[in-house]
Design a protein that fits this description.
With 667 residues, the protein is α+β, with helices and mostly antiparallel strands. It has five domains: 100 residues, Rossmann fold; 70 residues, ATP-grasp fold, A domain (Dna Ligase, domain 1), CATH 3.30.1490; 247 residues, ATP-grasp fold, B domain (D-amino Acid Aminotransferase, Chain A, domain 1, 2-Layer Sandwich); 122 residues, Glycoprotein, Type 4 Pilin (2-Layer Sandwich); 69 residues, OB fold (Dihydrolipoamide Acetyltransferase, E2P), CATH 2.40.50.100. Helix content is 27%, strand content 33%. It has 16 helices and 39 strands. An eight-stranded antiparallel β-sheet has the order 14-13-10-11-12-15-22-20, sandwiched between helices. It has an eight-stranded antiparallel barrel with strand order 24-25-26-27-28-29-30-31. The protein has a five-stranded parallel β-sheet with strand order 3-2-1-4-5. The radius of gyration is 28 Å and the shape is globular.
Length: 667
């Protein structure tokens, strides 16, 4: 076994590898960009080396700088994690030339499976079933269009290199093909440096089921059963589970055997994942092989009891696999959800900013959280917006679903938009509970899921916000009194005492565009009558210094967290987050919003402009494409109108809040 390991990655996977290495007595070396100087993985490692500026192309994708850090630190092996250089055969070859062990498959296996076209050809020779399609080298647009006609619409355009939903477009008809091809190629080029694509028949309502495989240098190759990854948005996995709901033992065995054949066909070693589309027949087809550890590997660990990272390290050190196929079994059910910094109510746009508050669930043997962030960290536009992976396990699927809902209710993230409520809406959906699984689930139910995730003001949120403000005011007055030299003066009394009766005051809050007034009657010390838009509540409670509020609302005790930043309030209670703003009746005035500009919702780079100044456009027409966090986002016309100004060209960097296009809507 190695004595020192360098992790050529960041975030939760770097933290995950460090924890396993530490348990095995291996010293760890982290690498970091300037943006990650205070990141959690840097703090956890035994030592860490700065490798460049924030952009990944100048740091985490710099092979020379990573190898320099490995050599300087005396590391014997490099674990690439997933993403970045993990599936780069040149990186694996360079490690070998430098005398370093690459914790992953041989370069030839990475190269063979890294090209989807070559992988399809090899799988066909190995007898692994394939989706009908075109995987040829001729990339002329007309050739590709003719092949799409031959295959039959709808078709799926996929980047030949890479994965993660990038460079992938569903095309419904010939008239949409050219635009889909151009967009897929552009995104593939930006993500992988290669704009070659392949065309496949798009299967209606398929399932995405993948098999975890593992091979060693002693000719052993096994599979560790399946994961269902069908719950996807924009081809990006959102929810994963093991075992796959409703999968028969016969199909499970057939898919496992096909996955092992696929791995053996390329001389595979280490951990890998063979991904299949599962049809309704049920027939299954090879999609691709990921020659690395997957983001969703914890669900396999949860049902098999195997630490896949430990197996990776032991295999890389030359040890044989500790178990054979007959010795492996699954127990229970596990589900993983990915917590992203994104706004489901705003088209799932990524969210950048400082994490003001993070509280993740703790569940012992039933709940696991893999994360690389904590409160105070900054989420930037340079990397994937994954915040954490939340994994639950129990004896069966219904029990695991209940665990998942509870764990999501205990998750608190403030400072950036997060998809916590959206994930909870999926977990609570009757179709999810019934195991109605296919890749179109989220698109099919998107409206109701987004509505459930953003259902306005949460239960009791107004009462909790008002109670927090009143108790916080009392705490401030008590602190001032102690500093005053006369703490017993009645002038420090903040409970609304009046000589000839009680006191009433008005509190004004804003929730989005809605203005809300709350009348407050002071009762006994520490108790209030709150007159809310929907009724009257008697409230009292205690406020901790971290914003935790133990409230009593009409005799019902509940716990909430309220965070305040200036006049902005975030109320987290009962698994819901409600954003409110305290209104200063003197300073706040209603201002009319000036017409005209389309604003950048996030920082990014302009990669396409499809209109010119003076163009008349229709509502929903694409105007400009912005790339951020490795994904493309299309800015469309909000109404019929005219483009009056075009402030940016292809290649320009824009900041959040910057005007992109001048626009006059037709009246």
């Amino acid at each position: 076994m190695f004595s020192k390991l360098l992790i050529a990655n960041r975030g939760e996977i770097a933290c995950r590898v460090i924890r396993t290495a530490r348990r095995l007595g291996i010293a760890t070396v982290a690498v970091y960009s300037e943006a990650d100087a205070r990141a959690l993985h840097v703090e956890m490692a035994d030592e860490a080396y700065r490798i460049g500026p924030a952009p990944a192309a100048e740091s985490y994708l710099r092979i020379d700088r990573i190898l320099d850090a490995a050599i300087r630190s005396g590391a014997e092996a490099i674990h690439p994690g997933y993403g970045f250089l993990s599936e780069n055969p040149r990186f694996a070859e360079t490690c070998a030339r430098a005398g370093l062990v690459f914790v992953g498959p041989p370069p030839d296996a990475i190269r063979a499976m890294g090209s989807k076209s070559e992988a399809k050809a090899r799988m066909e020779r190995a007898g692994v079933p394939l989706v009908p399609g075109y995987h040829g080298a001729d990339q002329d647009p007309e050739t590709l269009a003719r092949e799409a006609d031959r295959i039959g619409y709808p078709v799926l355009i996929k980047a030949s290199s890479g994965g993660g939903g990038k460079g992938m477009r569903i095309v419904e008809s010939r008239t949409e093909f050219a635009a889909g091809l151009e967009s897929a190629r552009r995104e593939a080029k930006a993500a992988f440096g290669d704009d070659q694509v392949l065309i496949e028949r798009y299967l209606p309502r398929p399932r995405h089921v993948e098999i975890q495989v593992f091979a060693d240098s002693h000719s052993n190759c096994i599979h560790l059963f399946e994961r269902d990854c069908s719950f996807q948005r924009r081809h990006q996995k959102v929810v994963e589970e093991a075992p796959a709901p409703g999968l028969s033992p016969a199909i499970r065995a057939a898919m496992g055997e096909a996955a092992v054949r696929a791995a053996r066909a390329v001389g595979y070693r280490g951990a890998g994942t063979v991904e299949f589309l599962l049809g309704a027949d049920p027939s299954f087809y090879f999609m691709e092989m990921n020659t690395r550890l997957q983001v969703e590997h914890p669900v396999t660990e949860a049902v098999t009891g195997i630490d896949l990272v430990e197996w990776q390290l032991r295999e890389a050190a030359g040890e044989p696999l500790p178990l054979d196929q007959p010795s492996l079994a699954m127990e229970g059910h596990a589900i993983e959800v990915r917590l992203y910094a994104e706004d489901p109510a705003n088209g799932f746009l990524p969210s950048a900013g400082r994490l003001a508050h993070v509280r993740l669930p703790q569940g012992g043997d039933h709940v696991r959280v893999d994360t690389g962030v904590r409160a105070g960290d900054r989420i930037t536009v340079h990397y994937d917006p994954l915040l954490a992976k939340l994994i639950v396990r129990d004896r069966d699927r219904p029990s695991a679903v209940r665990r998942l809902i509870r764990a999501l209710e205990e998750t608190e993230i403030v400072g950036v938009a997060a998809n916590t409520g959206f994930l909870a809406a999926i977990a609570r959906h009757p179709a999810f509970a019934a195991g109605e699984v296919d890749t179109g689930f989220i698109d099919r139910h998107r409206g109701e899921l987004v509505a459930a995730a953003d259902a306005g003001i949460g239960p009791d949120a107004l009462a909790l916000a008002a109670l927090y403000l009143l108790l916080d005011r009392r705490r401030e007055e008590d602190e001032r009194a102690l500093r005053s030299g006369d703490p017993w003066s009645p002038w420090w009394h903040a409970w609304g005492w009046r000589l000839n009766g009680g006191a009433t005051e008005a509190l004004r809050l804003r929730a989005g565009d809605r203005m809300i007034e709350i009348a407050i009657d002071y009762l006994t010390e520490g108790a209030f009558r709150l007159v809310l838009p929907d009724g009257t509540v008697t409230a009292g409670g205690d406020l901790a210094s971290d914003g935790t509020l133990m409230a009593d609302l009409d005799g019902v005790r509940c716990r909430a967290t309220v965070l305040r930043n200036g006049r902005d309030l975030s109320v987290l209670a009962l698994g819901r987050r409600t954003n409110l703003q305290l209104v200063d009746t003197v300073a706040d005035t209603d201002q009319e919003v000036a017409p005209g500009g389309l604003i950048a919702a996030m920082p990014g780079k302009v990669v396409a402009v499809s209109v010119a100044r003076g163009d008349r456009v229709r509502k929903g027409q694409p105007l400009l494409v912005l790339e951020t966090m490795k994904m493309e986002h299309t800015v469309t016309a909000p109404a019929d109108g005219i483009v009056t100004r075009l402030d940016h060209a292809v290649g320009d960097q824009v900041q959040e809040g910057m005007e992109l296009i001048g626009f006059d809507a037709e009246r």
